[in-house]
């Protein structure tokens, strides 16, 4: 969790257990001052949010929490942004989760509010109509791991490490990681990770379907850009509805999920882009989407 408390832990595993989520920093960061803890960049219809606390392993404190929530809300509302990418500055950690110095002093209602802030952020990511990608380079642990789980896709470099070290600190996941992880990788493996605090590497994460792509560090952003192209050449409404169908349908019984799926299909069938897509297919040309 908190980078400022790393000095208390002697073994490498213990040090890693306190770090949270990491990724390579961006070349062109705009909108916010480079000294801000959260940076926003808009590039080629992509909105990139970077946690900018590399010296603190990109750990999250109250100030950063507020800025990150505002950044997510801003990009969700921006009509020019089609895909949102969440990452962290530097090459060691994606997001260093919660600031242990702050968490150690939290009690009662303050602890509840800290957890609620994390849940709100994760739900904003999960319920966004736009696809959200976690770009992970380095350690993806604890609270940062939970943020990544809320994203639609996780793309990582080969040096990425994933884990939920909370039990080693006398706590459990507070932002929904123990709920989302089993739904992504299955109950048995999720219990192992959540209860033992073990870390897994990038290849194991890919093997158990935790991540969508693994690349070298140098090629990470090219892989992400290529992945985004395959998303952004699709109709926005269709992507939004597929996300709704998957997220909501997985929580329903089969009958309700089928009814929900049919309702979404009925709405999509009334769109201009449905007619355009089918005409383009018959005419053997690329469709021109209007997102209407």
Number of domains: 2
Count of strand segments: 9
* Principal-axis shape: globular
Unreliably modeled segments: 1-32
Give, in spatial order, the strands making up the sheet with the most strands. 1-2-3-4-6-9
In CATH, the homologous superfamily of the largest domain goes by the name 2-enoyl-CoA Hydratase, Chain A, domain 1
CA-based gyration radius = 19 Å
Mean pLDDT: 84
As a percent range, the share of strand residues is 5-15%
CATH topology (level 3) name of the largest domain: 2-enoyl-CoA Hydratase, Chain A, domain 1
How many DSSP helices? 12
Order of helices and strands: HEEHEHHEEHEEHHEHEHHHH
Q: Helix fraction?
A: 40-55%
> Do you know the CATH architecture of the largest domain?
Alpha-Beta Complex
CATH class of the largest domain: Alpha Beta
CA(first)-CA(last) distance: 44 Å
What structural category characterises the helix and strand content? alpha/beta
Q: Let me know the largest β-sheet.
A: 6 strands, mixed
Task: List the defining traits of the structure above.
292 residues; alpha/beta; 2-enoyl-CoA Hydratase, Chain A, domain 1; Lyase 2-enoyl-coa Hydratase, Chain  A, domain 2; 2 domains; six-stranded mixed beta sheet; three-stranded mixed beta sheet; 14% strand
Structure write-up:
There is one protein chain. This protein is an alpha/beta fold and 292 residues long. The chain folds into two domains: 3-232, 2-enoyl-CoA Hydratase, Chain A, domain 1 (Alpha-Beta Complex), CATH 3.90.226; 236-282, Lyase 2-enoyl-coa Hydratase, Chain  A, domain 2. 46% of the residues lie in helices and 14% in strands. The chain has twelve helices and nine strands. It has helices at residues 12-18, 62-77, 100-103, 109-127, 142-150, 177-185, 187-196, 202-207, 220-232, 236-249, 254-268, 272-282, and strands at 38-43, 46-51, 83-88, 132-136, 139-141, 153-157, 161-163, 199-201, 213-215. The strands form two sheets. The chain has a six-stranded mixed beta sheet, with helices on both faces. Helix 2 (62-77) runs parallel beside helix 4. The model is unreliable at 1-32 (pLDDT under 50).
């Amino acid at each position: 969790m908190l980078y400022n408390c790393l000095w208390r832990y002697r073994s490498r595993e213990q040090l890693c257990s306190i770090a949270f989520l990491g990724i390579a920093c961006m070349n062109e960061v705009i909108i916010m001052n480079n000294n801000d803890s959260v940076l926003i960049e808009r590039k080629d219809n992509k909105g990139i949010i970077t946690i900018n606390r590399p010296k603190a392993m990109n750990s999250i404190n109250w100030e950063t929490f507020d800025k990150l929530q505002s950044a997510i809300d801003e990009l969700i509302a921006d009509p020019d942004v089609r895909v949102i990418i969440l990452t962290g500055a530097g090459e060691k950690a994606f997001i260093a989760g919660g600031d242990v110095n702050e968490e150690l002093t939290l009690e009662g209602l303050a602890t509840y509010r800290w957890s609620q802030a994390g849940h709100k952020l994760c739900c904003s990511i999960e319920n966004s109509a736009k696809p959200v990608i976690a770009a992970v380079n380095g350690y993806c642990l604890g609270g940062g791991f939970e943020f990544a789980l809320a994203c639609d896709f996780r793309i990582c470099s080969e040096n990425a490490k994933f884990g939920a070290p909370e039990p080693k600190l006398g706590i459990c996941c507070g932002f929904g990681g123990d709920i989302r992880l089993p739904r992504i990788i299955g109950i048995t493996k999720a219990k192992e990770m959540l209860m033992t605090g073990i870390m897994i590497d990038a290849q194991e994460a890919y093997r158990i379907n935790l991540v969508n792509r693994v690349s070298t560090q140098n090629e990470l952003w090219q892989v992400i850009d290529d992945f985004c192209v395959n998303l952004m050449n699709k109709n926005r409404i269709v992507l939004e509805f597929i996300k709704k169908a998957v997220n909501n349908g997985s929580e329903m019984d089969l009958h309700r999920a089928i009814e929900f799926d049919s309702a979404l299909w009925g709405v999509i069938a009334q769109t201009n882009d449905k007619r355009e897509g089918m005409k383009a297919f018959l005419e053997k040309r690329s469709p021109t989407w209007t997102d209407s």
